[in-house]
Amino acid sequence: MLLLKLSPVLALVYATTAHTSCGGGGNRNLEALFRSHVSPSTEIASSYQINFSTVVGPRWSTWEAPAWSGAIKPALISDLKQIIKIAAKNNIPFIATNGGHGAKTGLGSFDGININLQNFNTVTVDAVNNRMTLGPGATLGAMVTEVFAAGKEIQTGNSWCPGGIGVTLGGGIGMLMGLHGLMIDDLQSVELLTASGETVTASKDENEDLFWGIRGAGQTFGIVTAANYTVHDQTNGGFVTEANFYYTAAQNRSLWELIATFDNVLPAKLSLQTAMLYNATTDTASIWLSAWYVGSLDESQPYLDQFAALGPFATEILNLTQVEVYYQSVTRGVCGTGHLLTAYTMGVGRTDPDTLETHFADFVAFSRANPAYFGQSYMQWYSNKVNLQTPADSTVFPWRDVQAWWLLENIILDDSLLSAVDDWSVLQRGNFHATSGFDDEHVYVNYAIGDEGPAAWWSEANLPKLRALKARWDPHNLFGKGYSLE
Question: Nearest 5°: phi and psi at 122?
Fold first, then answer.
């Protein structure tokens, strides 16, 4: 199935204690432990109970799926506070989830409990004051729908189903970056449930250092129970010109050379995404390019003409609302669940046609040799206009100089192929870094698979301050499974 919209791979809000000799919740009576402290509408189930599947949060990929011993779905924020306090007191590891798009190496050995945040699916838009408040159970789709209905817009990821706050905490890249920067740049304040079970406010005026860390590494400090953002008046009445071009394998070099001319000069309203595709039935490879322009067709035509001049074998020009652009991720398969799926990523400082041409050939060869492999390799180009105007030290998110993001999504139908896929993916990741123009790996933590390490996610320069914040706010590592600072 053609996945025309990219789903953020790592939009999970993490919270966990370290493993202890007490194990997870499997040998505990969760009802006896939690029920008297939470409201009647809170749902509780151990993994062996028949209602467990309705209480546990959904999961996008079956790869490294936690071996949950139980799940709790709190009805109220006050319930959530009690759950955190009781779990911490009793050494019960937990992970709080919403969209379930978190997939990170090592989670397969986790046997604690899931805290399902989906009951907190709230989005409130104050159109007069250009403000929005997001609950921890709200998805990107719910957020975009409500903001659009209010005549506003906000930067968001390019998918429908991940959790809105989870995506924000890692930075939040997407189609409107050239106009509004990252999602964290529109974040004004958060209410954070900390390791003590209490709620604190973090903003530029209150707990400023914590707010710095939350914007890019928020997964490591607690659970955000409310996030407050700035929203903007709609550009072009909320409509987007979407142009989809399909190229043969023989045209790939010309496409990469054309895209490279946009490095450092990509217009603020224009973003590009390509997907490398292989059809095993016909043994043919192709490349799909989607150009999103937040403006009229007439205004975008000079840019689209350049891609049309390459002679794609198919072209589709659409005039869509922002909601329709994001909603296509549902209808085109990105929000499908149940696949054994891994993902690898790297940010690059320049578009290198040689690297892309070689990677495309490698991708086709690997796909042809492994019939149980159904991967797609994406590149995303967003304007850096706002990013480069934002002080680099204003947030812990460090990679504002990235020109393009590479993301390889591996769908594997035979798990015996997993090791070979991972070895090949690591090799490809190294090739992208080698010609990226960066000495240090630039990895978007929301896309990370987990083996890259904290310097690749947050930069070596940011780690001392980040570790000091961790020691202050979460000294016993209650939160942040999969995001080690060591």
Answer: -125, 135
- Judge contact between 116 and 294, C-beta under 8 A: no
Sign, Cα dihedral of 184, 187, 188, 189: negative
**CATH 3.30.465.10 domain locations along the chain:** 120-234
CA dihedral angle for residue 449, residue 452, residue 457, residue 462, rounded to 10 degrees: 150
pLDDT tens-digit readout, 429-481: 999 999 999 999 999 999 999 999 999 999 999 999 999 999 999 998 899 88
For residue 26, what are its two tokens?
């499997």
**What CATH code would you report for 236-457?**
3.40.462.20
Main-chain phi, psi angles of 461, to 5 degrees: -65, -30
Cα diameter, the chain: 68
**Overall fold of domain 120-234:** 3.30.465
- Residue 282's CB is within 10 A of a number of other CB atoms, namely 8
Burial of 385 (0-12, 13-18, 19+ CB in 10 A): middle
Region label for 64, one of left (φ > 0), alpha (ψ between -120 and 50) or beta (otherwise): left
pLDDT single digits (tens) 192-231: 999 988 999 999 999 999 999 999 999 999 999 999 999 9
| 349 CB neighbour count, 10 Å cutoff | 17
d(CA 429, CA 346): 6
CA-closest candidate to residue 28, choices 46, 11, 54: 46
User: Under a CB-based contact definition with an 8 Å cutoff, are residues 360 and 287 in contact?
Assistant: yes
- CATH 3.40.462.20 residue window(s) in the chain: 236-457
381-403: per-residue pLDDT in tens? 999 989 999 998 999 999 999 99
Measured distance CA(8)–CA(359) in Å, rounded: 22
CA 389 to chain centre: 23
When pLDDT is averaged across residues 172-180 and rounded to a whole number, the result is 96
3-class secondary structure per residue, 173-202? CCCCHHHHCCHHHHEEEEEEECCCCCEEEE
Instruction: Name residue 349's amino acid.
Output: G
Residue 18 has pLDDT above 50, yes or no: no
Distance CA 350, CA 368 (A): 29
Q: Which of 332, 245, 335, 346 is nearest to 286 (CA)?
A: 245
